[in-house]
Amino acid sequence: GQPVEFDHAINYVTTIKKRFSEDPDTYKTFLEILHTYQREQRGIKMVLDQVSELFRDHPDLLKEFTYFLPDAVQDQAKERLHRAAQQAEMRKRMKLEAQAAAAA
Questions:
Q1: Which pLDDT does position 4 carry in this prediction?
Q2: Which long-range contacts (CB under 8 A, 24 or more apart) does 22-31 make?
Q3: What is the chain's Cα-based Rg?
Q4: Which segments of 1-104 does DSSP mark as H helices, in order?
């Protein structure tokens, strides 16, 4: 199943590039995190922390990041990223409620 995963990874990167077209630094940072992870085989925990921070307001991107990771770390990654995604969703909801209250 390599090609399907590969397509998914390409689509994911394209999504990030488009979403942060106004903020190319975020896209660059994401690529740097990936390169460093691949080059240095850095601990997965560090990568997850960096990605969780980078996409802290984008729950969908957090959840999909697991597609990039080797099977061995999938479970650990899913748990960490889903937690980050839940926090992102909560922040989003609070922001919307604050806006609604301000508009009222």
A1: 65
A2: 26/54, 29/54, 30/54
A3: 15
A4: 2-19, 24-40, 44-54, 59-64, 71-103
